[in-house]
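Structure ticket #2291
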Amino acid sequence: MQKSNWAKAGILSVVSLSMLLAGCSDSKETASTTDSNGGGSKEPIKIGVVTSKSGALEGYGTQELNGLKLGIEYATGGTNKVEGRDVQLIIEDDGGKPDDGIKKARKLLEEDNVDILQGSASSSVAAAIAPLAEEYKKIYMIDPAAADDLTGKNFNKYIFRTGRNSSQDSLTGGKYAVENLGKTFVALAPDSVFGKSSNAAWKGTIEKAGGKIAEEEYVPADTQDFTPYLQKAIQSKADVLLISWAGSGGAALFKQIAELKVAEKMKVTTGIPDIAGIKAMGDGAAGLQGMTAYYYGLPKNKENDWLVEHHQKDFNAPPDLFTAGGFTAGIAIVEGIKKAHSTDGDKLVTALEGMTVHGAKGDYTFRKEDHQAIQPMYIVKLEKKDGFDYLVPTLIKEMSPEDTAPPITNSK
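Resolution: structure written out below.
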């Protein structure tokens, strides 16, 4: 059988996608059972979630929030209570806009008196909210925003991240890209905090492995016509087109890559997206190899088995790319409170530093130096399988947390 253009090109998906969290603006959800008299005897634990309910990252938010709810359920044995207190989620929509994110976070902290912050889909929003965690001395459990600076130069001691960062993505696949695809790269990314962080991470990994990023193209995040950028990449004569993308424009991007037959003229590398994104890539992507942070069929542990079973039951679908991070964030919050016997920010910092959480992918450990969770990562190949209406990521290699541990870049 003739191989697809993707397979011929030896495509490796080695880029990062940004992540998530969705919710209803001004909505409150009690992720707990209540006593027959209408409530418990103690005030609820309030988790304030700021994420994209609307905008380009809306879909990612739904995945992560579903995971967050299930993580709390799993870690509390189905009671949704910690230390005898109900767990309540208060969800705000940032629309992917940093100014809105700050306003919503302040509302949660000052009016709703939340104990913990969680989110966001957008790295720009997460960066804007991060100083508030320090100001109010509240834990900010970040997932899935991937920009390195959140646990780097923008780090403060109240920030913890279950989501992987851009450097973890690049360390998973960057060396492989240089050794198997080519030495010169054109990097295409959204003009955003995430896009610039991702390119910086990949540049460092690629150069260390002996490659070079010859050109960097930053594209407006709402772009739907990528033709000029793709044509410029082809004309560059570089070996590889490296794509970092997140959000709704991905479908148009991959469609135009196929239409322009880019993979016949240069090799292409990008991150394996969520299931909707894989469907948008089409059957022509069969044979594509790349890195991914999660696919529900990859991990083999009791936590992931539980997540897959209960997500299917509750949402009539398997968990997706960013569900695992939300699930693990929920578990980490619960386990931190149990260990600290408190929701006090400083006590939670002490409890969480160095903690290993058993999550959807296995062990996630919060490093004491920067509170970034080191975690397993994967290199996979997209293949056709009976019973699936999309190409299925199948495991080539699981990378250990230590193999993909990012550099420590904060100065605090």
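Closing remark: The two ends are 56 Å apart (CA to CA).
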